[in-house]
Amino acid sequence: MVESPIQSTEVDNAMNGTDREKSQETASVDKNHNKAPQVTGGKGNNGAQVQDDCHVTTKDFSIFYGDNEAVKKATLSIKARLVTAIIGPSGCGKSTFLRAINRMNDLIPGCSTSGNMIFDGLDIYSPQVDVVALRKRVGMVFQKPNPFPKSIFDNVSYGPRLHGMLKKSELEQIVEQSLVRAALWDEVKDRLHQNALGLSGGQQQRLCLARALAVNPEILLMDEPTSALDPRATAKIEDLISDLRGRYTIIIVTHNMQQAARVSDQTAFFYEGILIEMGDTKPLFTKPREKKTEEYITGRFG
Amino acid sequence: MKLSTRKLLDKSFTGYGIFAIILMACALLLIIVPIATKGIQAFIFRGTIEYRKLRLEKFEEGNLKKVNAELKGSQELRKPIYDMIDQFEKDIRELEYEERREYRKELREVKKSLKELFGPAPGDHQPVLWREQYGQTRWDRAKIKIDQVLFFEEWDYSNPDKMGVKVLVDRKSLFKGTSLEPLFAYVEKHAQSILQPKLVFYWRFLFDESFDAHFFGGIWPEVLGTLYLTLGAMFFAIPMGIIAAIYLTEYAGRGLFISLLRSCISTLAGVPSIVFGLFGLAFFINSVKVSESKSVLAGSLTLALLILPTVIRASEEAIRAVPKTYKEAALSLGAGKWHTVLTVILPAALPGILTGIVISMGRAAGETAPIIFTAAVSVGKPLHFWETLSQPTPALPWNIYNLCTEHEAVDEIRHVQYGMVLTLVALVLILNLAAIILRARISKKLKG
Amino acid sequence: MNIIKRGFALYSALILTVSLAFAGNNKLVMDGSTTVGPIAKAFAEYYMQQNKDVNITVSESGSGNGAKSLINKACDIANMSRFMKGKEFKAAADKGIMPVAHVVAMDGLPILVHPSNPVDKLTVDQVRDIYLGKITNWKQLGGPDKKIIKISRDTNSGTYETFNKLVMKKQKIAGDCEYVGSNGAIRQRVQSTSSAIGYAGLGFVDKTVKALSVNDVFPSAKTVASGKYPIARPLYMFTNGYPKLGTHLHGFMTLHLSPRGQEIVESIGFIPVTQY
C-alpha cells in the first residue's frame, strides 16, 4: 500500500501540541473529493511506520463503580491503525473499558480507576491531562444513534467549530469530506440543512460516524454501533469500518461474535471484568488458547 | 374486571372529561363575553355632535366644514330651549319672593342637567375642565342624561318600617302652567336631532393619551406602561432564571445547601404578590435607590422577582427532559461542560423554557400588587424609553382598579373601565399567542 | 472579535440611556391623599397642557404614604388631606426635609347615607355614638329597623384623621366597622348598601349618595366656607421647602392661587380658598 505525502488539516494545526505526533492520513484517491486544504508540516513518510506499533497500552488497569470492581487489572495493547474488537457476555465490563479510553466514565459519579492507561506516552488519567484535547483525539460512536436536533450540516460541523474552525468555506469542506468517508454524502448532499432527526436509523448512525470523523481523531471507539440497526444498515457500517482501517485505530465493542470475526484484526475477550485472552482474530476464533474463550465462542454460555 | 364494567368505566371517564371541559368553556365564556361586549363599546359607539366637536377642537381631527354645518344645525335646534329658559326667568321676576325662590331652585337643577347633556349654554363663561366644556359625547350616556332632564328621583319615606322607595317624578309637573313646561316635551322630541349621534370607530382609544382624568381620550400611557413593565420583567428574569436552572441541573451537587436553595425557590413561588410589592419598595426604592421615586425600573425588578421561580422551575424541567445522549455526544467530541450546555442542551430545551416564559409573561402583565408601590401612578404621560429608568408610569392593572374605585366620577367612565379590561385581556392573549407560535416553530425545527 | 464589538455597542447604548435618563429632569412626582387626588390630577393636566416639556405623575396612596414619600425624597409634592403630624415633621427634619404646607382648597366631610334612607340629619354626638357602636340600628334614630353598617377610611388616610379628630374626638371606632381605602370606595360602598353610613370629601358627593345635615347645617360650599359646617378641613400640598422661583415646581404650586386654578377646584366640587 503506497502512501502519498502526508497532509494535515488546518484543524490539526490549530490545536497542535508540540510533542504530539501527527496522525497520518492518506490522500483520498477519488479526485472529486480531494479538497482538503493543503498545509505543509508533519513528518514525511513513504510507507514506513514512524510511531510505535501500539497506540494504547494499559497496565493493571481497573475500573471501580464505588466499591465494585467492574474491570479487574486489565493489561493489553491496542495496535495502531487496526481494528480491535472487544467481545464478551453482558456485564463483563467491555463497554466500561471502552468508555475509559476517552474518559467518558468521568461523567458517572462514583467511578474511579487504578493502574495505567498510556496513550501517546502519557497516562491519560494523570492530573495534567486535558480531557478536552484527549476527546478530540479519541472519538466515539454510541450504541443508539444520537445526532443533535440540528441540521445535518450543523451536526457534522459541530466538532470543527468547537475547536476553532469558523470559516464557512473550510467548514463546508470538512463536512463534505467527513460525509464522504462515512458513505453518506450522496444521500444527503441535497439536504444538508434539514434536520438530522429526519434520517433513518442507519443514516443517523453514519451521520454520527461522520460527526466523529470531522474532528479528525486518531482513535475511533465504537460501542455496539450496529445493535440498533437492521442488517442492511449493519452491513453498510461494517463496510465502512473496513474502509477506515489503516487511517484510524478502531476499537469496537460488540455483542455479535460473527461481526467481530468479520471486521476485526485483533480481538480481546473479557469475562466478568477480567481480560481472558487477546490476540489476532483468526487464531482466537479457530484455536483459542483459553478454555473460557472456547466455551464462549462455541456458545456454551453468554 | 368484567369487560362490561371496564367499558362502562371508560365511557364514564370520557364523559366526565368532556363535562369538565364544557364547564370550563362555559366559565370562560361567562367571563370573556361581557368583557368583550362591554369593552368593545369603548372603541365602537354612537358619538354625538359634541364628540365630533371635541375631536375637531382638541385633536384637530375631522372635516371642519361638515362638523361646522352640523353644529350650526344643532345650535338652531337648541335655541328654543334657551329662549324658553330666558322667558321663564323673566316671568318669575313677577312672582312673590318665596315662590320665586322655589322656582329658581328647580330651574337651577334643570339648567344643570341641560348643561350636562348639551354643554354650556351660548353666552356662558367657558369652563376650565374639559368635561364641562362639552355635552355628552356618547349617545348611550346622553340617553341617561335626557332622562335626568325629564325626570328626577324622589324618595318615598312614607313607610316607617322600611327604607325609602325610589320614585321618578316628571319634572314637567313642577313647572305646570309656566312658560317652561313645553321645554321638556321639546327636549324629549328633539334631543336626537340636536345631538345627531353617528356610529364611530374610535380605534385611537388605544393610542390617545387620556384627557381630563379619562373623561376623554384613550389609554395609551397605561398600555405603554404595561408593555414596558412586562418586557422589563422578562429582560431581568429570563437570563437569571435560565442560568439558575442550568446551575441547578448541571453544576449543583446534592448537599444540604442545594436542597435548602431549592425549597427557597419553591417557597418564593407561593409568596403573595403584595409582599413582593412591599419588598420592592423597601429594597429597590428606599435602600438600593435604583431610582429616586417610583419608576418602571423598580417595578420591572420587582415583577422579575415575582416570576423568577416559575421561569426557574420550567427551565429546570425542560433541561432535565433533554436526552442525556446529546450531552454525551457533545462531550465525546471534546466540548466542555459550559459549551455543551450553551450549544446543545439549551437549544433543545428551548420549547419548555418558552412555556415557562409564556406563563410568567401573562402573570407579569396582569399583576397589580407589586407595582402599586414601585411603579404605578394614576396619571402620567407615556414615557420615552430612557425615561423608564427614573419615572413611574400608569399601568393597566393598577389603573383599572383606580378608575373603578378611587375616581371621582366612576359612573361617567364605565366604558373606559371596560375598555381597559378588554385591552389588558387582549394584550396578555396576544403576548401568549406570540410566544406559543414561536415555541411551535422552534419545536418543529428540533423535531425535523 | 464579533462578540467584543457587540458587547461594546450594547455597553455604550446603556451608558447613553442612563445619561439621558438623568438629563431629562423635567418631572414632578406627586403622591398622597385620595381626596386631593382629583384636584392634583386636574392641576397636573392643566399645567402639562400649558408646559409641554414636563411630566407630572400623580399617585393616590393615602395622606400617610404621601408624607412618607416626601420624607424619603421619593416625591416632590405630598398631597395630604390633613396636616403633618409631629412625628412626621421630626422624621422629615432628621432627614433634612423642611415641609412647607400650601393650602389648595377647603373641604367639608359630609356624612353620607344611601338616598333611600329616610334619616335626614344627625348631630355630631349621634355620629360619634354610631361609630362607637353605641347606636347600632337606624330605628334608634327614627328610621326603619335596620342594622347600621359603618364604613370608615383606613388609618393611613387624612380623611380618617380629620374624622377622628373632629367627630370621634380620638375615641376608638367600634370593631365591626368596615374599612376602605379611598373616598371613591366609600361612595361605592354607601351607594350599594342601603343601611350604610360613611364619610368622604365634598367633591365625591353625587346623586347616588345622600349627605346628611350635621347639627342642622347642610354641607355645601357656602356653609363650609363660612365655617358653619362643623366638620371641615383644609386640603394641603406639602413641598420640601418653598419651591425655587422659576422652576416648574413653583409654577405648579402657585396654580391654586390663580383664578383658573380656583375655578378647577370649584368645578371638581371642593371649595376654593378665595372668592376669586
Could you give the topology of this structure?
The complex is a heterotrimer of chains A (302), B (448) and C (276).
Chain A: H1 10-14, E1 54-65, E2 68-79, E3 83-87, H2 94-101, E4 111-119, E5 122-123, H3 131-137, E6 138-141, H4 152-162, H5 168-181, H6 185-188, H7 201-214, E7 219-223, H8 231-244, E8 249-253, H9 257-263, E9 266-271, E10 274-280, H10 281-286, H11 291-297
Parallel strand pairs in A: 3-8, 3-9, 6-7, 7-8
Antiparallel strand pairs in A: 1-2, 1-4, 4-5, 9-10
Helix pairs in contact in A: 4-5, 4-7, 5-7, 7-8
Chain B: H1 3-39, E1 44-47, H2 49-59, H3 64-92, H4 97-118, H5 130-133, H6 139-150, E2 151-156, E3 165-170, H7 181-195, E4 198-201, E5 210-211, E6 216-217, H8 220-251, H9 256-270, H10 273-287, H11 296-321, H12 324-332, H13 337-366, H14 369-372, H15 396-406, H16 414-447
Antiparallel strand pairs in B: 1-4, 2-3, 5-6
Chain C: H1 2-23, E1 27-32, H2 37-50, E2 55-58, H3 63-71, E3 77-80, H4 86-94, E4 99-108, E5 111-113, E6 121-122, H5 124-132, E7 149-153, H6 158-166, E8 178-180, H7 183-192, E9 196-199, E10 210-211, E11 213-214, H8 221-225, E12 232-240, H9 248-253, H10 259-268
Parallel strand pairs in C: 1-2, 1-3, 6-11, 7-8, 7-9
Antiparallel strand pairs in C: 3-12, 4-12, 5-9, 5-10
Helix pairs in contact in C: 2-10
Protein model, in words:
The complex is a heterotrimer of chains A (302), B (448) and C (276). Chain A is of the alpha/beta class and 302 residues long. Chain A contains eleven helices and ten strands. Chain A has helices at residues 10-14, 94-101, 131-137, 152-162, 168-181, 185-188, 201-214, 231-244, 257-263, 281-286, 291-297; strands spanning 54-65, 68-79, 83-87, 111-119, 122-123, 138-141, 219-223, 249-253, 266-271, 274-280. Chain B has two domains: 49-201, no CATH class; 220-447, MetI-like (MetI-like fold, Orthogonal Bundle), CATH 1.10.3720.10. Chain B is built from 16 helices and six strands. Chain B has helices at 3-39, 49-59, 64-92, 97-118, 130-133, 139-150, 181-195, 220-251, 256-270, 273-287, 296-321, 324-332, 337-366, 369-372, 396-406, 414-447, and strands spanning 44-47, 151-156, 165-170, 198-201, 210-211, 216-217. A two-stranded antiparallel sheet of chain B has the order 1-4. A two-stranded antiparallel sheet of chain B has the order 2-3. In chain B, strands 5-6 form a two-stranded antiparallel ribbon. In chain B, α2 crosses α3 (64-92) and α13 (337-366) runs antiparallel to α16 (414-447). Chain C has two domains: 2-106 and 235-268, D-Maltodextrin-Binding Protein, domain 2 (3-Layer(aba) Sandwich); 110-230, 3-Layer(aba) Sandwich (D-Maltodextrin-Binding Protein, domain 2), CATH 3.40.190.10.
